[in-house]
Amino acid sequence: MRAAEQALIEYEIALETFRVEVENFSRLHHQKLGPMYARLDELDARIAEATAARTGDPEDVRKAEEARARVMPMPGVEELFHGWMDDEGLYPEAAAMLTDQSVRPPQRVRPGEEARKLYRELARKAHPDLAQEEGERQRREEFITRVNAAYARGDEALLRELSEEWAAGPVPEEQRLTRSEELYARLEWLAQRKELLTVLAKELEESAIGGMLRLAPDDPDTLLDEIAEQLLAQVAEREAELERLTA
User: Rounded CA gap, 229 and 160, in Å?
Assistant: First the structure.
């Protein structure tokens, strides 16, 4: 049972670190590359409009209208709140802005090595799956929530403070399980938890952002710069084509 608990905790740590990378990559991708995508859409619309003006072909006119429609689509609710909230509520940055606190968005896809080390140590020590009583589980869940938020921002200083806080806090008494029925029930719960996490991991890996991260697993932050260079090249090509059509 101990081995199963530790294996599950290590799996959850790996899943959480990947989830943070996916979320940070998605938000940084939108912040850094969103304007480039918008510029490409605008250039495509202008090129289509210039082509339609030259040819007068109804098909070219239709394509120009479709291209222009893509530039200024009617935003949905999710788009209006993109970067502000998810299913669990406001992002920390959004909450900070609304409460006049300092805004601390993620600066990179993958938090620094020291932050990752501190996070893993805290997760292994304070993981809720190690609790045997509901009160202790709740205390651990609340603490790990704070740890996850600090890690997502790569806040090494706060992670150190949390490490000291946990070390100074009450240490739960170890409860030795002696009844085989309790052991089997515990192992069954661990197996069910692993199945659930496996589903979540698959969803992350198969998402669009997860697929992009797999292209550069060792240095995901550099991937943003590489994509930006490709988009800049496409922008230059579109601008040259537009200049040729309107000359």
Answer: 37
**Centroid of chain to Cα 144:** 18
Please compute the mean of the pLDDT values over residues 71-95 and round it to a whole number: 51
Does the pLDDT of residue 49 top 90, yes or no?
Answer: yes
**What is the structure's pLDDT at 178?**
58
Q: What is the C-alpha to C-alpha distance for residues 68 and 43, in angstroms, rounded to an integer? A: 10
Question: What sections of 56-112 are H helices per DSSP?
Answer: 58-71, 77-80, 92-98
Residue 126: enclosing H or E segment and its boundaries?
helix 113-126
More confident residue, 1 or 105: 1
Between the alpha carbon of residue 24 and those of residues 100, 107, 150, 226, the distances in Å are 23, 8, 13, 17
pTM metric for this prediction: 0.59
One-letter amino acid identity for 203? E
d(C-alpha 171, C-alpha 160), whole Å: 18
| Residue entry with tokens 């009450």 | 170
Q: How far apart are CA 178 and CA 194, in angstroms?
A: 24
How far CA 202 is from CA of 18, 26, 140, 193, in Å, comes to 11, 17, 26, 14
